[in-house]
Amino acid sequence: MGDCIAEMARLPDKSVDMIFADPPYNLQLGGDLIRPEGGKVDACDDDWDKFDSLATYDDFTREWLAEARRILKDDGTIWVIGSYHNIYRVGSLLQDADFWILNDIVWRKSNPMPNFRGTRFTNAHETLLWCAKDEKARYTFNYRAMKALNDDLQMRSDWVLPICSGGERVKDEWGEKAHPTQKPEALLYRILLACTKPGDVVLDPFFGTGTTGAVARRLGRKWIGIERERAYVKVATARIEATLPLDESAMTVMADKRSAPRVAFGLLVESGLVPAGATLTDSKRRWFATVRADGSIASDMHSGSIHKVGAALQGAPSCNGWTFWHLDDATGLTELDVLRQRHLAAL
Amino acid sequence: MGDCIAEMARLPDKSVDMIFADPPYNLQLGGDLIRPEGGKVDACDDDWDKFDSLATYDDFTREWLAEARRILKDDGTIWVIGSYHNIYRVGSLLQDADFWILNDIVWRKSNPMPNFRGTRFTNAHETLLWCAKDEKARYTFNYRAMKALNDDLQMRSDWVLPICSGGERVKDEWGEKAHPTQKPEALLYRILLACTKPGDVVLDPFFGTGTTGAVARRLGRKWIGIERERAYVKVATARIEATLPLDESAMTVMADKRSAPRVAFGLLVESGLVPAGATLTDSKRRWFATVRADGSIASDMHSGSIHKVGAALQGAPSCNGWTFWHLDDATGLTELDVLRQRHLAAL
DNA sequence: CCGCAAGCTGAATCGTTAA
DNA sequence: ATTAACGATTCAGCTTGCG
């Protein structure tokens, strides 16, 4: 327990094999954000995430990165996670400190919080940077393990994982979430499995509820956690003590949740498979509609998605636009569902 | 044709609505990369991608960003695409230049080049930054069009798109790919559809084979392209001339409700669409109110505008009375918003 | 005990106009 | 420059409660 820079300063040079760091993001949130149904978003407004300026944040980052670099073995690697608020500062400062970026990894959240006001794209991912100490370092990368984890295909730089919720979310003594930004164990599982060997020492300078420690213990890695807040240290300690070493059944929980890719009709328009301006009709040419640039369609009376317009024209409560509508061009009628299959095959 | 900084310097202040920039990535490649079957990877080793040091790259980036900022309208936005080699420099310098990041977007490539050596994760994405000139800017974001393009779900920050290949890839006179890093039209299509209006001026300071110009022309946007290499200018010019604009009906996208003309509820009462004395209720018939002659409504406890009374009854901070209240008559429940649409259509 | 509906929640830089 | 009023806006997954 203590300040991460002061505590790292007490560790010897080149003594840890891997560092995983989840530093403050410096979110710079404004006033309250209200949900459409009236509820308030429980924002991360803790003091530990507040910095006076970008310069202050940069100074803090430079300092802890310098200690991290000193402690890290020459062939060790460092992982840092962040969002667009801070990751560009962190990435630049990592490069300035002569770290060598091996990959940037995108954590694509399967269930992110929506953008309630319709003002931006849903902020649906976070970014992780994986770096060696220099270009020539002989770092650990368990290529085969990653390939096995990904159905015998190379593991890519984008990882789809759900956010940490439900039973995995650590609760405090009042039953509330113990920490505003707890990371999912599946994320740490993949990182530790990819970049460490059993018995390696993993350091997490922003330990929080101890996800890194719990997964390290489960995978037979040694760990060091540094955390400033007494409340977090307390829940982390209890959590890790309750963690059992991995058994085979638990491994399946960690695997990717895979499902058939959903195709939006708009993607066919973007890719040119169904050009904007094209005419759609049903199999008996009773109704017609025109495709618009954004993938919505318009008949003389209605506009909206292929499903909504199909339903409205027929006076039906619902309609599967994929099988109802056909592209009407020089080659004749082609069911949209056939074009969708073609699009999926091309991917 | 010319150097991007020199040419931008000739453009007036605050004169373009949007900037899309695909600057050199400063890839810092080592020796040749050989594929498992023996072929050599055709790497991007052009002179224009080489910089002496990170500091040189930063200086170059600072310079063109300063010109870009000067040229951009106050409510305009800038997009920059990059990979892990350069995007952390660019993101940091954007923030240093007081740009305000709205989103970082991940272009997840459906068909990336594998990692032939098995030494890292497959580098399967690139990153785009979307920024306004400052926090308060009132930028263009066609929320409804993006939602339509994504099957009526909010468009997320991770976009799955194939790389540019096949017939879309521009060839030179010898049949070789004309440019090593041509971007797919689908990427520009989504960006221009999301963040510009028809007739807007889009600037691309690193024009290459003119993808931005081709898509801008197709979507009825004006464009300015700056490119240093004569060979690229030549293929870009031919390509754009061969691109046909969409006609206006195809270019139409789902309208944003915010841009629709305001209708006072009282107008519906005046016109008889909602008769004074009528009963309003919510979709679940939990609350009721009576319409008064002046367009105010009254429940047993509260009276005022449709918004105020809706908020008060629910104990919510605010309420959209148009979607909350329904006219309750012989035909059943009709949402006020539907009656508003009917009123607008009748005008 | 099951099935279904309703409710809650997550690292969020989350509005515009006119008086 | 400040304030009030208008009115636009959500996805996936888990939990709780009721029949």
Low-pLDDT residue spans of chain A: 248-259
The appropriate CATH architecture of the largest domain in chain A is 3-Layer(aba) Sandwich
Structural class of chain A: alpha/beta
How big is the Rg of chain A? 25 Å
How many helices of chain A?
12
Task: Describe this entry's structure for a reader.
2 copies of one chain form a homodimer. By secondary structure, chain A is α/β, with parallel strands linked by helices. Chain A folds into 2 domains: 4-256, Rossmann fold; 261-346, no CATH class. Chain A is built from 12 helices and 13 strands. In chain A, the strands form 2 sheets. The first copy, chain A, has a 7-stranded mixed β-sheet, sandwiched between helices. The first copy, chain A, has a 6-stranded antiparallel β-sheet with strand order 11-10-9-8-12-13. In chain A, helix 2 (54-71) crosses helix 3 (87-96) and helix 6 (211-218) runs parallel beside helix 7 (230-241). Mean pLDDT of chain A is 93; it is low at 248-259. At the A-B interface, helix 3, strand 3, strand 4, helix 9 and strand 11 of A face helix 3, strand 3, strand 4, helix 4 and strand 5 of B. The structure holds a DNA duplex (19 and 19 nucleotides). Chains A, B: One of its GO terms (molecular function) is site-specific DNA-methyltransferase (adenine-specific) activity.
Short key terms for the protein model shown above:
347 residues; 19% strand; 31% helix; seven-stranded mixed beta sheet; six-stranded antiparallel beta sheet; DNA-binding
Layout of strands and helices, then pairs:
2 copies of one chain form a homodimer.
Chain A: H1 4-9, E1 16-21, H2 54-71, E2 72-82, H3 87-96, E3 100-109, E4 125-132, H4 143-149, E5 158-161, H5 185-195, E6 201-204, H6 211-218, E7 222-225, H7 230-241, H8 248-254, H9 265-270, E8 279-281, E9 288-291, E10 297-298, E11 303-304, H10 306-314, H11 321-324, E12 326-329, E13 332-335, H12 336-346
Parallel strand pairs in A: 1-2, 1-6, 3-5, 6-7
Antiparallel strand pairs in A: 2-4, 3-4, 8-9, 8-12, 9-10, 10-11, 12-13
Chain A binds a DNA duplex (19 and 19 nucleotides) through loops.
EC number (chains A, B): 2.1.1.-
Family (chains A, B): Belongs to the N(4)/N(6)-methyltransferase family.
Domain DNA methylase N-4/N-6 (chains A, B): 16-236
